[in-house]
Design brief:
Number of strands: 6
Strand order of the largest sheet: 3-1-2-5-4-6
Helix content: 40-55%
Order of helices and strands: HEEHEEEHHE
Shape: globular
Radius of gyration: 42 Å
Distance between the termini: 122 Å
Length: 208
């Protein structure tokens, strides 16, 4: 069998056309599919990165809120902010003389100073908030007006459990565990509230 030059040329052209057609079809099919897969991965990665960023921002915001709250609580004496505080005179450090009451100040702008005086002057136990309510007999609300508008209560406790544990002579130098007075009932507390030698500006009987 013989082929003319023109026939061979036509055969080569047809072969190129078929090859080009196959390449063209493959070129449209796979790049598009790979492109969609890639785009999908990009979108997923982008979404994951955005979600991670949002989580970090939320965590940062929570930490910031906690830090701000801590600053507000610890800085209650500044900027006119007020706070409640108490000084529990029942519990004292070595060398301190215990008393059977706890003094509480409400809405004061001098909470830190009050706590420092409690610790340094009386060697007693300061704390934030109100005095513990357990074992209170009754109290006296002081009539004296404070410069910052705060209110003060002295709460008297049944300390029989503490005396049973420590004894009656566990105070400094072997003295009384609790300084006088040590009221044991509501009548005794009422007498203290009415005592102007103890409360020069007066005090009113109170219950928690």
């Amino acid at each position: 069998m013989t082929f003319s030059a023109r026939g061979l040329a036509r055969t080569r052209e047809a072969t190129r056309a078929v090859a080009h057609g196959i390449a063209s079809r493959e070129g449209w099919r796979w790049p598009a599919a790979n492109g969609l897969l890639y785009s999908s991965r990009v979108r997923h990665r982008h979404a994951a990165r955005v979600l991670a960023l949002l989580v970090l921002l939320a965590a940062s915001a929570t930490a910031a809120c906690n830090a701000i709250t801590s600053v507000i609580v610890s800085g209650a004496d500044y900027g006119g902010a007020s706070a409640d505080a108490h000084c529990d005179r029942r519990y004292v450090a070595d060398g301190g003389q215990a008393s059977a009451f706890c003094q509480e100040v409400v809405a004061t702008i001098a909470a830190s100073q009050f706590s420092d005086d409690c610790r340094n002057k009386f060697r007693a136990t300061p704390g934030a908030g109100l005095c513990p309510r357990a074992r209170i007999i009754a109290g006296c609300k002081l009539d004296k007006k404070s410069d910052d508008g705060s209110e003060v209560w002295d709460w008297y406790y049944d300390v029989s459990d503490l005396l049973a544990e420590a004894g009656t002579d566990a105070g400094p130098d072997g003295g009384p565990t609790f300084a006088s007075p040590v009221p044991t009932d509501v009548t005794a507390v009422a007498a203290l509230c009415a005592d102007r030698t103890r409360y020069a500006d007066g005090a009113e009987m109170a219950f928690p």
